[in-house]
Amino acid sequence: ETGVTQSPTHLIKTRGQQVTLRCSSQSGHNTVSWYQQALGQGPQFIFQYYREEENGRGNFPPRFSGLQFPNYSSELNVNALELDDSALYLCASSLDSPGGNEKLFFGSGTQLSVL
Amino acid sequence: AQSVSQHNHHVILSEAASLELGCNYSYGGTVNLFWYVQYPGQHLQLLLKYFSGDPLVKGIKGFEAEFIKSKFSFNLRKPSVQWSDTAEYFCAASAYSGAGSYQLTFGKGTKLSVIP
């Protein structure tokens, strides 16, 4: 167990809807990042939050947005869902300030299906 | 944009066989390199990482990887695999992407099946 918990574990939405995914970081971790993993692919970086501020973003449109709260838990929001958004969404937390070489602790993910 | 390539999609080995999984990255600057592993039903977890110093790094469970800068490679090796090594292995590279942030890029993964 990594101590990173994600909810819900599975979710089914229809195209055009909005979704919020949640992540509780491992205790003491102040950095959280989100990844999208499509079937048969590796995780793809969406964005990272450090001390409640966005600290880097991958090649995802603005309809993917996030928040990090004072207790370092985090949310990923996706608006106007598209069929291609169907994927496993992974949250990862780390103890160190972002420096590129920190160890990430991953949650088990939220499987999102868009119909 | 940086990218990470893993050469093999699925590798099948018998127990005690030697393992080498290929990984190449494309980025001209300084990179930090990682191997993550996902055992069946478990979370992704760090196997080993390289960010400076000795290019031969050792990780958990007898795994090691060698950073060869001239070849942009970071191959994963293990002299003798066990059935419990059955898992999916992901190579990843982290590089500075501006404004104080780093971006971690994963390869597509290699599934390793070890036959008893």
Measured distance between first and last alpha carbons of chain A: 32 Å
Percent in helix of chain A: under 10%
Gross morphology of chain B is: globular
The number of helical elements of chain B comes to: 0
Kindly, what is the distance between the CA atoms of the first and last residues of chain B, rounded to a whole number of angstroms?
Answer: 41 Å
Mean pLDDT of chain B: 93
How many beta-strand elements of chain A?
A: 11
What composes the largest sheet of chain A? 7 strands, mixed
Secondary structure category of chain A: mainly beta
Order of helices and strands of chain A: EEEEEEEEEEE
Greatest contact between two chains = A-B, 29 and 27 residues
Given the C-alpha coordinates, what overall shape of chain A results? globular
Helix count from the secondary structure assignment of chain A: 0
Mean pLDDT of chain A, to the nearest integer, reads 93
Largest sheet of chain B: 6 strands, mixed
Q: What is the N-to-C succession of helices and strands of chain B? A: EEEEEEEEEEEE
Brief write-up:
The complex is a heterodimer of chains A (115) and B (116). With 115 residues, chain A is an all-beta fold. Chain A has strands spanning 5-7, 10-13, 19-24, 31-37, 44-50, 53-57, 64-68, 74-78, 87-94, 105-106, 110-114.
Tag the structure with descriptive keywords:
heterodimer; A: 115 residues; mainly beta; seven-stranded mixed sheet; 0% helix; 50% strand; globular; B: mainly beta; six-stranded mixed sheet; four-stranded antiparallel sheet
